[in-house]
Amino acid sequence: MIEAADIYKHYGARAALDGVSFRIAAGEVVGFLGLNGAGKTTMLKVLCGLLLPSAGQVRVFDVDGVKDPLALRKNIGFLPDRAPLYGDMTVRAMLSYAGRLNGVDGKRIHGRVAEVLALASLENVADDLIETLSHGYRQRVGIAQAIVHEPRLVVLDEPISGLDPAQIVAMRGLIRGLKEKHTVLLSSHILGEISQTCDRILVLHAGRIVAQGSENELTVGGQKRAEIMARGSLADVEKGELLRVPGVTDVEALPLEDGLIRLRARFASNEVREGLVRSLVQAGFGIRTVNDLESDLEAVFLKLTRTVNPAEPGLTQKGGEA
Amino acid sequence: MNNVAKALLIARRELSAYLSSITGWLILAVVLLADGLLFNTVAMAGEKKSFDVLQGFFYFSSGTTMVASIFIAMRLFAEERQQGTLVLLETAPIPEYVVVAGKFFGAWTFLLLLLALSAYLPLLVLVNGKVTLGHVVAGYAGLMLLGAACIAIGALASAVSPNQILAAVVSGAIIVALLLAWMLAKKIDGPIGDVVGFLDLFDQHYRSFSRGTIKLTSVVYYLSLAYGALLATTAVLTARRWRA
């Protein structure tokens, strides 16, 4: 169990963390989601013992991180946003060094490095200098150095940042694979990544957790937006009764060329969307396309980070402790 | 794995980093070239007794050793911070003082390698002149201690500086201030002047080594200076956990 209780971190007058609390069960893959500057990296650094909190308590598998930072660090593998790798070392030497630094026994290190090389699919570059590797490979080596000493908690700060689509897919598989032996906590500002990789999401905004739960839990009650391209006139929209379709709000219409109009509508559920399209068809519009403007999670995230005042208590969603 | 083994692991990494970098080889080449040139043009200039030649060698070698120490030590923490690798040491279950000790011994070992490579010059004087082995040993003991103190000061400067250039400037400034302490001591009367005079890095403590005499007070001075600087470096690293 990883537990953060009322963590505060101040830089002068500015509060980077403003009373963050959460619990993570062993074996979970949990994602910190937040805008840049929300406090994700600060929170991860506090968890890893890199930063001491101004107030609050961190416990990682029954070790008090503030009172016993050395014992805390034994349990943690950390990949910061920039992988901490020496360019003049080979991948194998780097992993061996990281393992030894973190207490892996000299007799075991070769076998353990071989295991990690295989796990991270790095065997083909094992004897290459790190400075010659691509960004994607470096990130893999970064994850490998974070797990070489078999920590119980693996903390990854923006692990897919800067990767191409193929590398993202490979990295996602690697992170999901860690779940078998480790608890994983990662941060990202990329919603799609968090939702695809993590079991649970902690939404951090202005130094506070404003929501937490699975994607399904977070999106309950969330509004959706869609863009509809249709043949018809603006006047028909204005005199129509689109806004009276139950659950539809904020219909915007814009005339385009060739007799087309673009409608953007906000609605509560997929059923409402169907009702809206049905109303348009009944009003004589020729529907060309219907596209979601943002995912359910995106809508919830934008809503939380735009409207939630983090100073107000009690806004945390399901399972909230912040 | 105990703390000594961890410090040695870090020291080995430091040493291999110097030996695998252009900067490391450049420092070796430039200092050895300077030693050779100064030996021929300064120490050997004119008619001199072999004792004076050897003393001259240890005199200018102190300068090249101090300069080399500044350049060797500037990378210790500043480079790691610039490259984002310091976090590897900061997240490992290793106390800060072990990290500092490992880095110091790695850098100092590299300096000792440099000093060892310059040993052919005083050995030539020993073989062809009338000097004692004790003079050579005392001179090198002085260079080793002076280098240890300067590298420790450089480590501290590297820990507080955001980049290597600033680290070199800061450690250079501290070392120059300690070199000029005798000037300040002349202006101050009484025991405070004596204390300031005692802090002098070169005149007060090194000259006796260059003449073949090992003074215990000077040994204690250099070791204390190195220890104090390393202690301060440890405090700086520990304090980083309270900041960003």
Polypeptide structure, described:
- The complex is a heterodimer of chains A (322) and B (244).
- Chain A is built from eleven helices and 14 strands.
- With 322 residues, chain A is an alpha/beta fold.
- Chain A is elongated and about 80 Å long.
- The model of chain A is unreliable at 310-322 (pLDDT under 50).
- Chain B has one domain (3-240).
- The longest helix of chain B is centred in the middle third of the chain and has 28 residues, at 133-160.
- Chain B is globular and about 60 Å long.
- In chain B, α1 packs across α6 and α3 runs antiparallel to α7.
- The two termini of chain B are 30 Å apart.
- By secondary structure, chain B is mainly alpha-helical.
- The chains are: A alpha/beta (322), B mainly alpha (244).
Strand order of the largest sheet of chain A: 6-7-8-3-9-10
**What count of structural domains of chain A?**
2
- Number of separate strands of chain B: 0
pLDDT averaged over residues of chain B: 92
- Report mean pLDDT of chain A, rounded to a whole number: 83
- Largest pleated sheet of chain A: 6 strands, mixed
Oligomer: heterodimer
**Main structural class of chain B:** mainly alpha
| Separation of the first and last Cα atoms of chain A | 17 Å
Helix content of chain B: over 70%
Helical coverage of chain A, percent range: 25-40%
Low-pLDDT windows of residues of chain B? none
If you compute it from the alpha carbons, what radius of gyration of chain A comes out, rounded to the nearest whole angstrom?
24 Å
Fill in the CATH topology of the largest domain in chain A.
Answer: Rossmann fold
Which word captures the global form of chain B? globular
